[in-house]
Amino acid sequence: MKDIMRVKSSISTDLETLLNQQIKKEALSSSIYLSMASWCDRNGYDNSADYFFKQAEEERMHQLKFYKYVLDMGGMAISPEVTNIKLEYNSFREVFEEALEQEISVTQSIKNIAARCHKEHDYVTLEFLNWFFKEQREEEYKARRAVELFDVIGEEGTGRWQIDKHVGQIVYSEG
Amino acid sequence: MYINKVQYMQKTAIASPIHFEEVFSTTKGSIYQSDSEYCWYVDFAGKLARFDYRNLLKLQKAVYGIDIENILLTSDKSADVEIIFICACDHCYVLSLIEIIALKELLQGAFVMLDLNHIIQDRLFRLAA
Ligand SMILES: [Fe+2]
Ligand SMILES: [Fe+2]
């Protein structure tokens, strides 16, 4: 009897489900960042708005990377529905704190997929995920550095203006 | 096992016998695999339905997704009938709760056998020295 399941798809249905959840998560990240860009722009934080516009585009790129992988492996990639995106934030700082939380949640979720790969001995998908782990290292670093600006510079006086100015200058370089 | 497809599927005018292999059977139904067609035939609730790879997975998802416990606990007078409709698939099942449980058992058994077949294929042919 032929092993049709394996012939048709290189990934298990469980991994396909997890990868589709990740596709949704990346889409959600993209929408959240877009909303943050809107808030920053509305409140006069131009550099931060630019920063989040760029982040939104990166998340979209991540989404497509997962999307294409699922298809390449013979799976069914599902275009996600994204709803309930927050429109308002209580403060400039809160925007960055939530951005960091979002990145952490993405990293944790990709770790969870990797754990499943280990369980199934799916080293092919694991290798694919490695790109994202490297990416998350940078994403979390940048998000954490941004939040730290609030403590380092302080929000008093022209502090927020200074913070906004520095947000765009955060770069990650592997030491 | 050889079954003349015409006996079962009046609409399909293929008279050539198709080779089926039984994947799993219960007293309520059977699932067969056709290697030449790369598909499965589900003999259940009085009909033989053909499922390709994607549709079999959709059937599995639909059946596993039914909250049997919840149906049992809700004691309203609505009929205990569940309609299983699979997008882009010709078949649809209208099943009672008892039948849903039977179909779930049949599918679970079949997927265990397919997993087992995967392991056997690996051991016998793909990993053999
Ligand atoms: Fe991402
Ligand atoms: Fe990110």
Secondary structure topology:
The complex is a heterodimer of chains A (175) and B (129).
Chain A: H1 4-8, H2 13-42, H3 46-72, H4 92-120, H5 123-152, H6 159-167
Helix pairs in contact in A: 2-3, 2-4, 3-6, 4-5
Chain B: E1 2-3, H1 5-8, E2 18-19, E3 21-25, E4 29-34, E5 39-44, E6 47-52, H2 53-64, H3 68-73, E7 81-85, E8 92-96, H4 97-126
Antiparallel strand pairs in B: 1-2, 3-4, 4-5, 5-6, 7-8
Explain what this protein looks like in three dimensions.
The complex is a heterodimer of chains A (175) and B (129). Chain A is an all-alpha fold and 175 residues long. Chain A has a single domain, classed as Up-down Bundle (Ferritin), CATH 1.20.1260.10. Chain A contains six helices and no strands. The longest helix of chain A is centred in the N-terminal third of the chain and has 30 residues. The termini of chain A are far apart. Chain B is an alpha+beta fold. Chain B has one domain. The longest helix of chain B has 30 residues. Chain B is elongated and about 60 Å long. The interface between A and B is medium-sized, with 11 and 14 residues. The site of one fe (ii) ion has 5 residues of chain A, from helix 2 and helix 3. The site of one fe (ii) ion (FE2) has 5 residues of chain A, from helix 2 and helix 3.
